[in-house]
Description:
Radius of gyration: 25 Å
Keywords: Membrane, Transmembrane, Transmembrane helix
CATH superfamily of the largest domain: EreA-like (biosynthetic domain)
Pfam family, one: Erythro_esteras
Transmembrane segments: 6-21, 33-53
CATH class of the largest domain: Alpha Beta
Largest sheet: 9 strands, mixed
Strand content: 15-25%
Oligomer: single chain
InterPro entries: Emycin_Estase, Hydrolase/PRTase-associated
Protein name: Erythromycin esterase
Distance between the termini: 50 Å
CATH topology of the largest domain: EreA/ChaN-like  fold
Number of domains: 3
Amino acid sequence: xxxxxxxxxxxxxxxxxxxxxxxxxxxxxxxxxxxxxxxxxxxxxxxxxxxxxxxxxxxxxxxxxxxxxxxxxxxxxxxxxxxxxxxxxxxxxxxxxxxxxxxxxxxxxxxxxxxxxxxxxxxxxxxxxxxxxxxxxxxxxxxxxxxxxxxxxxxxxxxxxxxxxxxxxxxxxxxxxxxxxxxxxxxxxxxxxxxxxxxxxxxxxxxxxxxxxxxxxxxxxxxxxxxxxxxxxxxxxxxxxxxxxxxxxxxxxxxxxxxxxxxxxxxxxxxxxxxxxxxxxxxxxxxxxxxxxxxxxxxxxxxxxxxxxxxxxxxxxxxxxxxxxxxxxxxxxxxxxxxxxxxxxxxxxxxxxxxxxxxxxxxxxxxxxxxxxxxxxxxxxxxxxxxxxxxxxxxxxxxxxxxxxxxxxxxxxxxxxxxxxxxxxxxxxxxxxxxxxxx
Length: 439
């Protein structure tokens, strides 16, 4: 049914112009041209319908859904899990940001998790880690150190405040730690590397010229920077207790490789995810050295889910950890999302609908936010046809344009929920985050 308006419009357009062409005695040429237009419109209509159409799609049975849906506070994870990942269908929704704190707090209180790892640069997140261990400033300033606008929010400040308050009362050795596993920016990581070099008495002369003032020195391109960081890494690796220093150097090498300008956009995405997987395993290793068995990871659905169209972080982690990797996905029925528009830094709030029959059932069943554990759904339940088959989920990144506004399939992903996630959190109506101005 979603294709009907396009079909009607195509027919009307073709008939109108074909008639005019006949009057101008150029009928044959114009008829051919607009016949092609008509066929193109039909094909596009079919494509749009195949990829989710323009409506909100069908709904799973809301009564059946309500039998198995639970509150967020009911969320549990299986024994033996080493990495719990929480995805978000968009970065720009208040509810998905708030769920970071809600889920992490449950894991801290019920599962003994002490580490929070974010889709943010290691250096910026280490600044947050210092703040939650008694550092100066405010939670808002700490959040701004992460470097991305999506984290300059009240929700992230609340998460950081919770971790600081917890640490103020925690016994020695029971403190919470804040990590980043991304590498897209590197200035804070560079500063930390200089600190490690000084502490371990390793000469940083090779890398000191790479930064002038508060930015990278333009006289050095990425391959040149990488060569210097590799030299420092080798010097640090020869030292005892240099694990952090080596990791800092490695993160900066990753930054250089990622931003060297070589490769396609898809290769950039795959390379970044492969680095994030390695960095997550490093964080897990550090926590296990402290006697902690599980870490909590937060990022976009597309990074943490277990299967996608490219080798993403979650898929790579699942290959290595198997059932020790547990993923909680998210989706919305309706969302008003905060997104950047253009290159000038302006942001806009825009409304979208997913095509997810489970999210629609959550809405119709009266849930604002709920948790669905796929392992608890019996084979004979009508929900199984949706959780175990391919459906469309909402997926919004950091960008907004005319294509996203007019073509729903551009922000919907076709995937099998049970293959991608172990459970999901559904938000019926998402509200936008409020991004604070950078100071």
